[in-house]
Design brief:
Strand content: 35-45%
Largest sheet: 5 strands, antiparallel
CATH class of the largest domain: Alpha Beta
CATH topology of the largest domain: Alpha-Beta Plaits
Structural class: alpha+beta
Mean pLDDT: 81
CATH superfamily of the largest domain: Protein of unknown function (DUF541), domain 2
Radius of gyration: 33 Å
Helix content: 25-40%
CATH architecture of the largest domain: 2-Layer Sandwich
Order of helices and strands: HEEEEHEEHEHEEE
Strand order of the largest sheet: 5-6-4-7-9
Oligomer: single chain
Distance between the termini: 69 Å
């Protein structure tokens, strides 16, 4: 009998625990009710739409990734060669209208150059490499090709031109236009949805903006000094995109 009593008592305890758990889940607290990570009161009311606006513009800024790379037996010799070449490159940039504030160092390094010596069965140092890379913003777009040529000539065989990208210096006016298009697109979608649902579209109750940054347009400008007397550069166009998420009430 004692054994049976213990079993019954245990079952009562389990049942009581289940009841208390259900009461805890149901709760008596006003406001948001949450079971686990699910918010039972988070349903979005009204009509939610996303509008998109696009503006195609011609870039007015070209950014060059350029610099020099020098290698010699000693650090001092490599650094001297690099400094002289970089000074010539910087002068070529400023002489061709690039403002000093638009020239910024991005990378500088002094590295050992090694090779494997099979006789000694080890790596040995054969020299040192100095790399000095900068970005240069070109604001006179018709001079991009001639500036590349001037830099290549100034730096000689030390010249490295890694890439060129195009962008817009002040995209604000274009985003103003894209924003208008995005809102008009959102309203048109919401009106269509309201019409299909047989309801009256109310005022916006929520608006959120998101900017889709355009991919930077790159052109491979070559790794070594250019041999051609004039480097052709195509600017192309940039597409600026802006999105808005809008919630409309239903009247």
């Amino acid at each position: 009998m004692k054994r049976n009593l213990l079993v019954v008592t245990g079952m009562v305890a389990i049942g009581l625990a289940l009841v208390l758990s259900l009461v805890g889940l149901g709760g008596c607290t006003a406001g948001t009710t949450t079971v686990g990570t699910v918010d039972l009161n988070s349903q979005q009311e009204g009509i939610w739409v996303t509008g998109e606006g696009k503006v195609v513009v011609t870039p007015d800024i070209a950014t060059l990734w350029l610099g020099i790379e020098a290698q010699a037996v000693t650090v001092a010799e490599a650094q001297s060669q690099a400094a002289e070449a970089m000074n010539s490159v910087t002068t070529a940039l400023t002489d061709n209208g690039v403002d000093e504030k638009d020239i910024q160092t991005q990378y500088f390094s002094i590295d050992q150059v090694t090779r494997w010596d099979s006789d000694k069965d080890e790596e040995i140092v054969v020299g040192y490499r100095v790399t000095n890379m900068v970005t240069a913003k070109i604001r006179e777009m018709d001079k991009v090709g001639s500036i590349i040529d001037a830099v290549a000539a100034a730096g000689g065989d030390y010249t490295r031109i890694n890439n060129i990208s195009f962008s817009v210096d002040d995209p604000s006016p274009y985003y103003d236009e894209a924003r208008k298009e995005a809102m008009a697109d959102a309203k048109a979608k919401a009106e269509q949805l309201a019409d299909l649902a047989g309801v009256e579209l109310g005022k916006p109750t929520y608006i959120s903006e998101g900017v889709i940054y355009p991919p930077v347009i790159y052109r491979d400008a070559g790794m070594e000094a250019a041999a051609a007397p004039s480097t052709p550069i195509s600017l192309g166009e940039i597409e600026l995109t802006l999105t808005v998420q809008v919630a409309y009430a239903i009247d």
